[in-house]
Amino acid sequence: MSEISRKEIEILRILSEASEPMGSTLIKRELERRGFFLSERTVRYHLQMLELKELVSEHEKGGRVITQKGLEELARALVSQRIGFVTTRFISMAYFVTYDPATDSGKVVANVSIIDKKFYDKAIDIVNSLYEANILLAPYIKVLDENEEYENISLSKGRIALFTVCDLTIDGILIHSGIPLFFKYGGLVQIINKKPIRFVELIAYDGTTIPPLELFVRSNQTSIMKVIKTGSGILPGAMREIVAEARERTVKIISILKEKGWGGILAISMPNEPTLGVPVSMDRFGLCMIGGLTPGAALLEEGINVETFAPHCLIPLEDMRKIC
Questions:
Q1: What pLDDT band is residue 81 in, cutting at 50, 70 and 90?
Q2: Fold of 84-324
Q3: CB 235 within 8 A of CB 227
Q4: CATH 3.30.70.1360: which residues of the chain?
Q5: Which of 34, 58, 80, 109 has the fewest beta carbons under 10 Å from its own?
Q6: Where in the chain is the domain with CATH 1.10.10.10?
Q7: pLDDT for 115-173, tens place per residue?
Q8: What is the band of 82 on the pLDDT scale with cuts at 50, 70, 90?
Q9: pLDDT at 3 over 50
Q10: CB distance 101 to 140 below 8 Å
């Protein structure tokens, strides 16, 4: 599929999953959640093209709905055409990371969690608890207040957004240090007495059209707050494989990050040895880190309605504040 066609197919997919007509603003936001960053004007253009093809129609109450012809077109769009898109997008975002641990500055990949402003204090307490339990990837956060705009996030009255560091940032740091890595799995890691024991669920990045950790979080399979309160539970984890020769250098970089207050590394295996029960390829070792979706997942567990974009964008670390 061409790039334009892929965007139009995604718009059709969004409309097919909607329970009511959707306008360009809502479609734009859902596209961003799925990795397509378009202006509202561009979304309107694609909607007009789809309408000309009779794949969508304007609803009498406003917004667009998918037509029967649109449903048939969507059915013909092979899912295999989107296999590998998740990995490609992740690698692309990691590549543009410029964060340098030596200077503690540069651009990082950020996730965004949008919540009602009334939950601000509770949300900050949760993020602080994650940091204290060493299950927050990086000790930085940015809070966007109501009626503010930043990196394509525009907030209405009564809403705030929390920007936290995504695990793709560590991938970017390693890549720019000359360390070749391979995206393998997103999964759920069992924690007992504060110790990571094993993966209990896995989804391969190259075999899915939706980010694995997003699937686990949406289906409420984590128990992050239980880990904080009791030391045992289920955490979202991201696993990479790295060539054996780069292990010493990887450990050194992780140690430098730890000195800067970074955390969330669940396991680093020896070459050719399983990582939390998962076998690795020949002459590679496994690196498992906490998923960047962890803050948003923890908010969900506490009954806070969260709209999450993960990963969302690259932002200068200087725009974030350090968690003390």
A1: low
A2: Alpha-Beta Plaits (3.30.70)
A3: yes
A4: 84-324
A5: 80
A6: 3-82
A7: 999 999 999 999 999 999 999 999 999 999 999 999 888 899 999 999 999 999 999 99
A8: low
A9: no
A10: no
- Report how far apart, in Å, the C-alpha atoms of 22 and of each of 73, 115, 225, 265, 278 are: 19, 21, 35, 40, 42
Percent of the chain with pLDDT over 70: 96
Phi, psi dihedrals of residue 17, rounded to the nearest 5°:
-90, -10
Closest alpha carbon to 319 in 94, 37, 108: 108
Q: Is 252 exposed, middle or buried (0-12, 13-18, 19+ CB in 10 A)?
A: exposed
Q: Indicate if the pLDDT at residue 292 is higher than 80.
A: yes
Where in 205-290 does DSSP place strands (E)? 233-243, 265-268, 284-290
Average pLDDT for 69-89: 75
Count of residues for the chain?
Answer: 324
Q: What is the CATH number of domain 3-82?
A: 1.10.10.10
The DSSP code for 105 is B
Task: Give pLDDT tens digits for 258-283.
Answer: 999 999 999 999 999 999 999 999 99
Strand-pairing partners, residue 114, are 161, 307
Residue 84, SS3? coil
Cα–Cα distance for residue pair 311/171, rounded to 1 Å: 13
d(CA 116, CA 139): 23
Task: Give the integer Cα–Cα distance in Å for 194 and 209.
Answer: 32
Q: pTM for the full model?
A: 0.80
pLDDT digits (tens, 9 = 90+) for 309-318: 888 899 999 9
Q: Measuring CA to CA, which residue among 10, 9, 26 is closest to residue 64?
A: 26
Question: Residue 213's closest CA among 182, 181, 183, 238?
Answer: 238
Please give the structure tokens belonging to residue 56.
């969508």
